[in-house]
Design brief:
alpha+beta, 3 domains, two-stranded antiparallel sheet, disordered C terminus
């Protein structure tokens, strides 16, 4: 009797164990056939400089996520089994660079190893199609404005000015869509990330390469801005800091500055935070663009 009872208990435990294992395997896609690796088209890749920096395996994962999120799938099979750190890097890059995916949630799932991604969407994903149409219409309106200008530099400044004049800055997460292009272009209220994502989208439509950059300000705050390619050279541009939220006014840094620097001269630039010290040095170093003024380098500036 005791042996029979033990056998029954063992059988029950085995069935329960098999069921749990099957559920685990299903959750992580272990028994699912992985799709073949594929990549973004040349046209899609042309205006995604961040994507071009990835390895072939990472590009394939990016593409799988890109297609799946475009279709608003909750589960997306990946072409490779990858570690959690690689997945996090690729997913976070995509979430920052693809401004049209405003309907992604603010968190994501990861694990030590992944074969299948589980995507978190914002509440009301069933209403996403309506909001997508609103964003597309707002994007077309912005592009129509930018198309009035010719040349990389003129288009970049037109994008900057359009966003500044049509969006109000809100700090933190004051509004649900503030860190998105939807918040910037449709709700017309966004934080720095929303500004940068909107800039990226419009720049791509205008045929200009751009990528969103994140970092920390000198006050220790998270911040987002853009790097943009103008006439073959890369520059930093920060639309957030160009916005004064004072009607249609665009902040002009270093207005009225007249400065001579001579060979061998030691010069100290002093000023409160935000007055333009770094901007001045970046312009001298060729990292930022100039507007409405000129800089002349003598023979002593030659490298």
């Amino acid at each position: 009797m005791g042996k029979k009872f033990s056998a029954i208990i063992l059988a029950i435990c085995s069935v329960a164990g098999i069921a749990a294992l099957a559920k685990y395997c299903e959750s992580y896609g272990i028994f699912k056939k992985l799709p073949e690796a594929s990549y973004l088209t040349e046209e899609e890749e042309a205006y995604r400089p961040a994507y071009r920096q990835l390895s072939d395996k990472e590009k394939a994962v990016y593409e799988a996520l890109y297609r799946g999120i475009s279709d608003k799938k909750e589960f997306i099979l990946l072409p490779y089994e990858i570690d959690g750190d690689t997945y996090s890097r690729v997913y976070c890059m995509l979430e920052k660079q693809e401004g049209q995916f405003f309907y992604l949630g603010s968190s994501y799932y990861t694990a030590d190893k992944l074969r299948e991604a589980q995507i978190v969407y914002r509440d009301g994903i069933d209403m996403a199609d309506e909001k997508i149409a609103e964003l597309e219409n707002a994007e077309k309106e912005a592009v129509s404005y930018v198309d009035n200008y010719s040349g990389d530099y003129e288009k970049v400044m037109a994008i900057n000015d359009y966003i500044v004049k049509n969006c109000e800055y809100v700090s933190g997460a004051d509004m649900e869509y503030s860190p998105t292009a939807y918040g910037c272009l449709v709700e017309k209220a966004a934080n720095c990330e929303g500004y940068a994502k909107a800039f990226d989208m419009i720049a791509a439509d205008a045929g200009i390469e751009s990528q969103l950059i994140t970092g920390i300000t000198d006050k220790g705050e998270n911040h987002a801005w853009n790097q943009v390619k103008v006439d073959g050279e890369w520059y930093n541009i920060d639309v957030t800091w160009a916005d004064t939220d004072d009607g249609d006014e665009v902040r002009r840094i270093l207005k009225g500055v007249d400065l001579d620097v001579y060979p061998g001269e030691l010069m100290v630039v002093l000023g409160e935070s935000g007055c333009g010290k770094s901007t001045l040095l970046n312009i001298i170093g060729g990292m930022d663009m100039m507007t409405e003024w000129t800089m002349q380098r003598t023979q002593y500036w030659k490298r």
